[in-house]
Amino acid sequence: MLLERLGVDVPVVQAGMGGGVVGPELAAAVSEAGGLGTLATTAPEVLERGLAEVRRLTRRPIAVNLLLPFARRAHWRAASGADLVVTFWGRPRRRTDGPWMHQCGSVDEARAAHAAGADGVMVQGVEAGGHVRGATPALELFDQVRAALPDGYPLFLAGGIADRADVQGALEAGAVAAVLGTRFLMSEESAAHEGYKGRLVDGSTTILTDLFGLGWPNATHRVLPNDATAHWLERRGDDRVPGWVSGVQASVVPVRRHVPFAVQASLAHRVSARSPLLSPRPPVAGSPERMLRTGALYAGETVARIRDLVPAGDLVRALTP
Ligand SMILES: Cc1cc2nc3c(=O)[nH]c(=O)nc-3n(C[C@H](O)[C@H](O)[C@H](O)COP(=O)(O)O)c2cc1C
Hints:
Helix content: 25-40%
GO molecular function: nitronate monooxygenase activity
Keywords: Flavoprotein, FMN, Monooxygenase, Oxidoreductase
CATH topology of the largest domain: TIM Barrel
CATH class of the largest domain: Alpha Beta
Radius of gyration: 18 Å
CATH architecture of the largest domain: Alpha-Beta Barrel
Order of helices and strands: HEHEHEHEEHEEHEHEHHEEHHHHHH
Number of strands: 11
Number of domains: 2
Structural class: alpha/beta
CATH superfamily of the largest domain: Aldolase class I
Shape: globular
Distance between the termini: 18 Å
Protein name: Nitronate monooxygenase
InterPro entries: Aldolase_TIM, NMO
Pfam families: NMO
Bound molecules: flavin mononucleotide
Strand content: 5-15%
């Protein structure tokens, strides 16, 4: 049983959320309450320091999530100190000796992860916040993946989960654990910008788009509306960006790995809502206020049902079936 092997008591996992919205405080609070906290992609040295800080805050297990398009050798080195590595967005391949899972948006991808020796698969439904790999609702995809993989193979379920009944539903469907992003993004410990948290609390509609694609083009993600989406999408009545914008966003891919994370962040701080150079970075504590208008305000469909910011440990307790 994967959770027992990891030493996790409660089948509640805080999803990896990149770009700095998860700091050690959030991940440690989730793990300390018995769930599984997850640090995510940021500069490798920040990830390494974050993991050391989590280890200081809790003795419980901790996961690290790596976005494959951005993961460099230094990220893998930093992640090797975690109890579980979760990968996303790319060909599943074992790069660590320890426990490894891959988040998947289709049956084919889940099959590929299983064949590559993943210790389990996170099944992500289209309701999810952040980058969305597939197009199928969570429970529907879960049934398909379950039928396609051997009995007893560990599956986690992500997307559209916000309360205890949802967690219960995931477990009844056969999931080993429920994975929640948006709910933990809306916690006191999340490092999302305060203004972003305010918009999440007030938010009800989300948009599935590829707008915030600088250096990561044609990658579908779910966000709250803001000035950038109003300019590029609502005005044109199309949630996908014009081809030429994707082309501009793709043109920086070859140089992206040579640009330090701090430089990428400072560029994202300066861009205007009318620029095609919209970055996948979300506004975090310390980001300028203007990023609320120009940054990616990731949110899942559950944002419509969540109206509060709660301490993460309380959330784990409230979610425990
Ligand atoms: C702000 C935000 C950032 C995210 N960043 C990542 C990431 O870096 N890596 C990843 O595997 N998934 C990422 N996701 C997706 C989550 O892993 C997960 O699939 C999703 O949050 C589940 O849906 P929910 O938001 O409805 O709970 C992100 C989600 C959000 C909301």
